[in-house]
Queue: 4 jobs
Job 1
Amino acid sequence: MNSRAAILTVCLFAIGLSGQPKSRLPQFGDYQTQDTFKGRLVVPLFNRPAEREYRTKIRQGVINGWGVTEAAAEDSRPGPNFAGHYLIIKWPCGSPCMMAAIVDATTGRIFPPPFHGAGDGYFWVPALWSFPAEGPPILDYRINSRLLIAEICEHPDERFGTYYFVMEDSGLRLIRTALRPSSR
């Protein structure tokens, strides 16, 4: 192969690589937090009607740790479990669904999960609807990372898959989706 053909081959190869979509999915280590809140938890602020509707569940989560679990363990405990100073509080609403709230331990601000699902519940996390099997949604998170990975179905007929969110001061921001076809 002459040098001109070799250069052309290298250029075409480089152009082909540059047009490829990023295949690497977000990782917990990409969004690490350095500090973990260890002070006194602030009382949740119930500003919106939906927050007041679930005040008992949210308050029990902050004060007693009910529904505050590490993603890998099922042991409830008081204190932050997500992104350094947030508490993800989960409670059942029937099968296969879940309710959840995110509370900032330093300010008391309450964030609903940013999912829509087929229902209109403010704190409702949409069920998987047979993806990958019947059962509640799966939320994966870490105390030392701002990344939240949710395996959910945003609508019963479409948008099945894994959603990647990053926690910011204003709440969760969607950064990536890995959608799969509906099994229905």
Job 2
Amino acid sequence: MHTSFSREVIMLGFLRKRTPSTPEASLNDIELHLREIPGALSTADAIPRIDWTKVREAIVPHANHAAINQLWTELAAQWLGILAVHLAGSYEIYEGSHLLLLCARPVGESKRLLRLADDAYDRLARMINPNPGSGCPGKRAIIILDKTSLYYDYISYFYADSDRAYGASVGMHTSRGYGHIVLNGNSKSMLQTLVHELAHALVADRPLPVWLNEGLAQFVEDMVPGYRAPFINARDVRLHRRYWSWFGTAHFWTGAGFKGAASQRLSYQLAEILFRNLVTDRDRRRSVSTFLATAHREDAGAKACREAFGCQLPTLVEEFLGPGSWGPIDNPEP
């Protein structure tokens, strides 16, 4: 069980100016407020929304400022502050080493949540090895909404209007605007969802195959203290072999299997198994970061698999299910 919670967490007041994260960088020469940027603030679904395109335009004159990342963090804190005022109640903003958190939990619990998230961020970064300058500028934001109805009102903004019925949701990461994670605080699996979506956030700028993206995100749920991944028994293995033998694995490799009602659960489960096998293999685990850096959804990661591990994609499935036609296409890989 990992219980290393050593970082200082700062509770922020609404629009309160913070001490710069780095002593050599200062925002004293910049006065930029979301409410003063024309067209930046609006309301949709009765919730304040930010037009981050307008914000980016306002930041252009400061693009080369030494504290540009801190400026983005300050603007993100302003945005969370506007939300906090709108939500009323006891919503507060907390700042960690890598993340901003908006929630209405008691102070002690909020700090523990943020420390857990910051710790998971560090461990993920060591596994993923992000490129310098990749991802969004500023600290990433996490929003925990304690009313389920409010959570759905918030996330509906990020879905197109349609008659399509969407499944139940406990959390999501969006890269739209200022990349952030929003969670349903009533979910019993909120902590697992938090680190799961954090993994998605850290690879959002990479063209990963769906199976690899979801395999990674499910694997890192182990970072939640006390959580243990579901056990795969012999019956589950037989079910997998029967299903993938009958229907093939092409829809798994393309990502379509993660959306179908009949294939979704087995696709997520297979993705987690394949990724766990990679990171627990004595030889392959040293090349997982390389694989995550080079895998591309166009070929389901086939080329990256050969270069990183010296094997074909079907080999990964064969080691779990035994011999079969497990390739990403109908014909065997060359």
Job 3
Amino acid sequence: MSNIANQIRAYAYQQYSDDPNITAWFAAYNFSVNYPTPIEGSPTSPSAQNYLDLMNNLSLPNYSNKTDDLLNWVAENIYGETRHSLPIGTSRPVGLIDTYAYDEETSNSYRIQFSDTTTFTVGDGVFKSIVQWNIFKGDGFQFTVTWLKRRVHRFLNGNPFSQNTFDVSVAFTTATNVVITVPAISTYGTALQAAVASRTVLLPFQYQFSVVLA
């Protein structure tokens, strides 16, 4: 009879079950969680239940309480978000009609080209705001001014449940140009400028966005 304290064994999907590298990884994983090595603060021979409790308390998908390399790992491997420095400078879209000469760019491509740029180093707080912006689904997927203002406000203060957006202004200067104005004293105001300009945060491609600190 198997030990009831053991965790249910993990296994690869059927289409990968003939790959020796993948099956070896799962075999090693199953052995490590059911026969864990001693860890600091635990008994000399901790049970599988102790290990299971440890993993549950770690709350791995919760990126908000992670820092440094663990935050990078969780963001990239669970949510597909990679930390990188943000360019700050004059930008223009390349890929639209009349934005480049023939044979200079790949057809149907799109990118943001910067000039006179510096780079903004993304710390843990800014990176969490970027991840939250891109994965938060509480507002739905229909773009509206309210949708945008809530995301901007959350980026600046980090509170996903805040609904007060009185400190954020959104104005359409033309049919496709949108100016977002936030308080100059905002801790992450410059980071928001860089994230919006580089399209690191998800925004409708039909519009051109800019952030003003006032």
Job 4
Amino acid sequence: MPLAQNRLTDRTLRNLKPAAKRAYDLADGGDLYVRVEPSGSKVFWLRYQLDGHRRRWVLGHYGETGVSLAEAREKRDDARKLLRQGIDPFEYKKQQRRAEQRALEASQYAEREATRQEALTVAWLVEEFCDHELPVIHKKPGWGTALLRTHVAARLGALPLSAFSSAQLWECLDPLRAGQAATARHVYGLIRKLCAFGLRRGYLAADPSATIERKTVAPKPTPRQRVLSDDEIRELWFAFGDGGVSRGVWLALKLLLVTGQRRGEVMRAQRGEFDLRTQRWVIPVEHLGKKKTPTGTTPHLVPLSALAVQLLGELFELSPGSPWLLPSPDDPAKPIDERALNRAVSRRNLTWSPHDLRRTVRTRLSSLGVPAVVAERVIGHELPELLAVYDVHAYEAEKRDALKRWAGELRRILRI
């Protein structure tokens, strides 16, 4: 005799009390159950069998904001119809939801396209540029996107592209020129690329930035020529860590001085880039601090001196469970903030910056008699275009010798 169906009532469900420690189930019939959790939550679930396998399908929580008893029974009856056809009701519903989601996404995309065609604005052009062009041409697309959104889209976002002119661009640049000259120059460079993109794609009839020169936005700053003295090198090596600077940041500054690489390349470095046995550091293309070029670039090989290997060994010991050489103190799954080195130097009120360590290495290599081509390759500079085309020598042996000589000079300076 078949079991009775629809045995539960709303009154019964409302009055169900949770057990102290374990959940328990009550049957409504037709393989429909309600589970009462120790928390008091009540969940409908369906038991069924298909292709010799028993399966369980959670239908939802009982209650005003969840699934009613009538709705749970309707889902049960629909599922039984599907099972008679050999169809898994759970998979069927999942495919239905996917189809509905795809239809919704297609509808939303069509609406967005229609809206875009109706009104092309500066904000829309910024987003198109940041989505399709900036990741290809810029080494830090996220940073560039933030600058354009903050200083261009936030001011001119609603402006139709047909009204986009140099007068509006000056509204973006003028607030930056007095106190933020470097930012003004960066924003100007991004605007030039944005307008060139708009012209190529046919979104702009003319370039509104064409009459604005970089030097009128903000004069080019005088190139820094700061090189650390022997005394400053000794202070960095032996005394910099006094006063609240983390051990990892201090070691990172030392590594910059020993290898001559870019700050970002050290801060973004992953442990897998280093082979301490063969004394090699291979910086992948995506971590290189170089501008993207049409011909692309190649990974940069940094031979490691014994001094560099010693520093890396200490860094590895500081973060054994993280993939990053310098993990974030807040989240070891992420790298440390790239500005951490600058902040550490600023707190000491020093007259040099982390980038000056790189210039120091390059200058000292020349003083040690290292040929310019080798010294440039050591710090990861590209060779001049014609030379780069015809000279594909890796310079590993020469770079290793140069960095070994620099490590020896450092040991002389440091008296170690």
